[in-house]
């Protein structure tokens, strides 16, 4: 991608700034202008669309609007075996119909599903980056139709290259000793970049030997489990027990990554939790909302480790996806080590689902033995 230059920005950052602004507009329920060569379209979050704006977009669309839905959501709507993003024609931008197709449990496909083009896929990437439902209203427009409108325009090349560009600009912005209970010799290192506008944290416990395989855990933030001790998952147990193990075993590094809800964001995580309370499996609940098994990316986590001087790791994880991501980023995985939580009546189905649906290395017999009352 050619570098861009602005008066006050650094070379190559124009696209990053534009996407940042587009994300802010999209989350604020305002349309974003997407460009692919000479093709233009307005993209609006299906979840956040308001009646007045929908009416104005409907007038502009002349019957050519469409709803873009992920393959996962389309499968739930009855498009069996669907593996690609698809579109549904919107001769009229009907918010009730859009809400049903994007979110309702009993909704079904009500029109032929068309193939998605580059602008459609870019609209869904915008939604994913903005941490809203992966569903977007797209209205093709001409330059003359939107002349003079205060719109943020972004190319699909800038959107598709955004994640990699964020990894490339990852930088340490602060670090300080933070003594923890059971691990007093601990340092927090804060990185900017990697995942949108969010900072990421590396917790260095003790004095790990960087010349050998460093014990490392990639831990995705879990507000409910890490902070409030939710019984629906094992995240809080894994977080605290990993830090304690590192403190007792010559140190290690825990990366605390802002990827709540397997990368879906806290609002969608709560939607999924509500579905789980109604009997849905954790992965089925995510699919109802339009998400695949896991939306997280770990390339920036590997970049954090490299900046800390790590080249070889002992991966403390049950998730093969994390092991593969570390290897793909060029780091050696010398060994892996399981991280056990505590099973209970609220999370045992969740743990079994991670094992059976996502291939996590979870020995349920060992977990149940751990939870058994001691004599």
Structure explained in plain terms:
Strand 1 (32-36) and strand 2 form a beta hairpin. The chain has a seven-stranded mixed sheet, with helices on both faces. The chain has a seven-stranded mixed sheet with strand order 8-9-10-12-11-13-14, sandwiched between helices. Helices cover 38% and strands 22% of the residues. The termini are far apart. The protein has 375 residues and is of the alpha/beta class. The radius of gyration is 22 Å and the shape is globular. The chain has helices at 14-27, 51-61, 71-76, 95-103, 118-129, 156-160, 162-168, 223-227, 235-248, 260-263, 266-277, 282-288, 299-307, 320-328, 348-358, 364-371, and strands spanning 32-36, 39-45, 65-69, 86-90, 114-115, 135-141, 153-155, 171-177, 186-195, 198-205, 214-220, 252-257, 312-316, 332-337.
């Amino acid at each position: 991608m050619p570098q861009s230059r602005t008066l006050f920005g650094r070379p190559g950052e124009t696209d990053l700034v534009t996407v940042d602004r587009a994300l802010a507009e999209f989350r604020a329920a305002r349309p974003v202008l997407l460009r692919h060569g000479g093709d233009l379209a307005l993209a609006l979050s299906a979840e956040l669309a308001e009646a007045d704006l929908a009416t104005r977009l409907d007038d502009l669309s002349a019957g050519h609007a469409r709803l873009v839905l992920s393959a996962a959501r389309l499968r739930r709507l009855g498009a069996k075996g669907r593996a690609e993003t698809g579109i549904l024609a919107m001769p009229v931008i009907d918010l009730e119909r859009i809400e049903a197709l994007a979110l309702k449990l009993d909704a079904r496909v009500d029109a032929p599903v068309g193939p998605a083009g580059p602008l459609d896929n870019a609209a869904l990437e915008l939604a994913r980056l903005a941490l809203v439902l992966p569903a977007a209203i797209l209205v093709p427009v001409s330059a003359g139709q939107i002349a003079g409108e205060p719109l943020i325009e972004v190319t699909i090349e800038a959107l598709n290259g955004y994640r990699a560009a964020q990894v490339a600009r990852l930088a340490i912005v602060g670090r300080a000793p933070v003594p923890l209970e059971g691990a007093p010799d601990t340092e927090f290192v804060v990185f900017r970049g990697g995942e949108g506008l969010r900072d990421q944290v590396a917790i260095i416990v003790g004095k790990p030997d960087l010349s050998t395989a460093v014990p490392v855990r990639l831990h995705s933030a879990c507000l409910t489990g890490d902070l409030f001790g939710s019984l629906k998952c094992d995240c809080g147990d894994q977080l605290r027990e990993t830090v304690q193990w590192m403190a007792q075993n010559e140190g290690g590094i825990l990366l605390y990554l802002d990827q709540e809800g397997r990368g879906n964001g806290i609002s969608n995580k709560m939607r999924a939790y509500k579905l789980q309370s109604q009997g849905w499996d954790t992965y089925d609940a995510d699919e109802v909302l339009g998400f695949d098994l896991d939306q997280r990316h770990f390339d920036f986590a590997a970049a954090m480790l490299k900046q800390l001087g790590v080249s070889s790791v002992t991966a403390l994880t049950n998730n093969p996806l994390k092991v593969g991501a570390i290897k793909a980023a060029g780091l050696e995985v010398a060994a892996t080590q399981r991280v056990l939580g505590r099973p209970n009546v609220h999370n045992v189905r969740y743990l079994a689902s991670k094992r059976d649906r996502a291939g996590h290395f979870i020995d349920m017999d060992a977990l149940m033995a751990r939870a058994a009352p001691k004599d």
